[in-house]
Structures are given as C-alpha cells and as structure tokens.
Amino acid sequence: MIRFFCSSLLLLRASGTSQDSATALLDDSCGDAPVSLVQSRAFDRRAASSQLRSPPWEQGFYFVGAHHKAGSQLLRDVMRHGFDALGAPGSCRWGGSFSDSYITTAPHDDPCQGNPNAPIQWDNNAKIANFLAAKAMAASRGQSIRGAHSVRKPKDMLVSAYCYHHRGKEFGNPIAPWPEIMAMGPEEGMMALWPMMSFTIQDMVNLYTGTTAEEMFHVRFEEIAPSSEGFDRVVQSLFHFLFAPMVSEADLQRSWQAAKVEDLNVDPNFTNAIAEAGHGSDDECLKAGQEAMMRLDPRLVQQLKDWQALLGYSTENWPDPIIG
Questions:
Q1: What pTM does this model have?
Q2: How many helices (H) and strands (E) does the chain have?
Q3: How far apart are CA 199 and CA 161, in angstroms?
Q4: How far apart are CA 273 and CA 74, in angstroms?
C-alpha cells in the first residue's frame, strides 16, 4: 500500500505538481519506502511523454521557395532530406508540375492554391504572392508560417544561367531560346536570357524584401555552397529556424546528418542530386561570362548592382569574383 501511495506521489512530482504539501508528504512518508530507481524513471518518462508536442507541421505552415540558378536544387534536396527525416506526411506544389521538383518523398503532387490542409508548401519559382497566400491560409487556422528561399548575387545567377543552358542543360526550358542558346557567345546569350531571368531575379528580391526575419530564412548560395563548414553552418541554422523548439535537438541533428549527402565538398566523386543534374558550372565559362557581363548595356549592369545591394550584399568591390 505504501509503495502504491509513494508511486502516485512520485508521478505527481514528475508531472510538474509543486505544492509544498505534496512534497512534504512525499519526503515524510516515502523516505524508506521500497520505490526503485527503475520505477521512478518510468514515472519520469510517462510525465515527459504526456507533454510531447505535436509535429511542427501541425502547429504552423512551411513555405520553401527557390529561384532559377540561385541554388534551387540544393535547397530543394536539403529540405527533402530534412522533412523526410522528420517524418513529414506530404506537401503541395505551387505552379506547374515538375516530376523532380518536390520537398517531401511522401505525396507531393497536390496543388497548393487554396489548399489550407497542406501546411508544407513548395514553390519552385517562388513568388511573394504565393507566400502571402500561404501566410493567409496559416492565419485562417490561427497559425503562423516559417519559410526559406534561395538567394544568390543576381549577376552570378545571370552568368550561371548562360553557362548552364549553353551546355544544353534543361533543353526546352522556356527561360532560354532553344537551340540557339547553345551556339551563342556569352554577351549574346546573356542578353537572350535577360527577359526571363530579370523576372526571376525580381521575384527573389520581392521575397527577400517583402518578408520579415521571423518568417523567412534566406539561404545564401555564397554561404552554403563553397565549403563543408559553410554547408553545415547554414543547414543547421536553417533547420533550427524552421523546426526548433517543436523538434528535439536529437531529431534536428538526425535531419542535419540526412541532408549532409548534398554537400559536394565532402566527396567530389559522390554523385548526389546536384552533381547528377549537372548544376555545377565550368569555371572558365563563369569567368568569361562575368567579363562579358560588364560589357552589356550599362543600364542592365546597374540594375544587377542595385539588386545586389537590395539583397544585403556589399557592392564595394563590384564586380566581386563569381562563386560557381
């Protein structure tokens, strides 16, 4: 009888009860009671389990967006590893359907438009209007939103887009004239890409300037791509921003490790999704492209510089070296 009574009081204490009378009664009556350490820990586990929180996507909305040649595939794959490791039940997609464009392995083909039951949302051509729509959906459920999108220096995006499509990658993508882009030199090629790439860059700037630090994490290509140290730092900060404190540190660590496979600096010979898709660019082409970019219409060059400043980058050493 004493054992049962003391066990009950231990559970009372573990569940957070702090009345002095209960504590005194526990100390006076149970000092010599045969309650084992195993029993005490069992009560602690029960109390902790009773306080477990629901998954983060049941507590708020998530919006992940990317912009062409701003590290879009890198962010997409990192987030897919992260969401999968945490057991995400599925996601939706804004815009058209892209067979290889999704951030959860679980069902991901439903449209996001007007879908308040899809709290994990992916936008491959991210626009501020789509983020605001997702934010409104979250608000309709009394919830907040956390997001992430890829960011890169605009001049580097334009040059990288030329080198990428000049090699014939994503043949048929309407962002470039096909097959002409494959025969164009850098100046002609970048001018041919400018009409569509300027819209892409403006969308990125709008999402950067139109969101708050509490609701959007900016994944800068220049910080995540060049080194393993940078990759680890950015991904850990990203996942902490998105999922803490709803997710335990142990689960955050597990998700970081799952995403590590996308770090090209770990093993250059390992064919991950980024390398397999050919998203890297030839250094010689990037260098020639930047030199050619400076010979373009001065108004266009100034626009690229202005965008770079709006995105929080320094323009003191313009044009700073391109990071491929």
A1: 0.80
A2: 13, 6
A3: 13
A4: 8
Residue 92 has what DSSP assignment? E
Lowest-pLDDT choice from 89-98, 136-145, 294-303? 89-98
User: What is the tens place of the pLDDT at every residue in 166-220?
Assistant: 999 999 999 999 999 999 999 999 999 999 999 999 999 999 999 999 999 999 9
Mapped onto helix, strand or coil, the DSSP state of residue 240 is helix
Who contacts 159 (Cβ-Cβ below 8 Å, separation ≥6)?
186, 190, 286, 289, 290, 293, 322
What residues does 151 pair with on adjacent strands? 220
Q: Of 83, 11, 77, which is closest to residue 49 (Cα–Cα)?
A: 11
Structural domains in the chain, CATH included, are: 2-50 (no CATH), 56-310 (3.40.50)
Per-residue pLDDT of 210-223, as tens digits, reads: 999 999 999 999 99
Peptide bond preceding 245 in cis form (omega within 30 of 0): yes
